[in-house]
Amino acid sequence: MELFDYIYYRWLKVYAKEDRDPDIYASGIVSAYQLLTIVNLVSFGCILLGIERPEVKYIIPVIVLIFIFNYFRYERGFDISKLEEKWGNEPEDRKRIRFILLVAYLVVTFTVPWIYGFATN
User: Fold this and answer.
1) Which positions, given as ranges, span the membrane (predicted)?
2) 118: helix, strand or coil
3) What is the mean pLDDT of each run of 10 residues along the chain (121 residues)?
4) What is the extent of the structural domain holding 56?
């Protein structure tokens, strides 16, 4: 969960400069990271096991559960001061490198299922 807490914290800081409700956006982005990671794992599992990938209708409940989980985790009484204490004094160069890695992770997790779908259809 520490990885997703860090993702939440960094995206919260990005949206805090531009929006009055940055926690909603940051929580949604964490949900997207989690969903794309699950889709990648399912895709790799289907390839390794040689089974057909599940239909979209089976993924919709997972999407809803992820959003509900993150809503209750990050938007309902979440204490941001713990994350601020942990990562608030992070050096700028480390912060920049980690943010680039977060964006790269998002790009990779987004493109892998797209490439898999393109290759199999």
Assistant:
1) 24-50, 56-72, 99-119
2) helix
3) 88 82 86 89 86 84 90 83 88 91 89 80 71
4) 1-120
Q: What is the pLDDT of residue 93?
A: 93
pTM: 0.82
Q: What angle do CA 18, 14, 25 make, to 5 degrees?
A: 80
28: its two tokens: 């949604």
How deeply is 31 buried, as exposed, middle or buried, from its count of CB atoms within 10 A (0-12, 13-18, 19+)? buried
- Provide the residue count of the chain: 121
How far apart are alpha carbons 17 and 114 in whole angstroms? 32
Count of beta carbons in the 10 Å neighbourhood of residue 102: 17
Nearest Cα residue to 59 out of 41, 76, 77, 72: 41
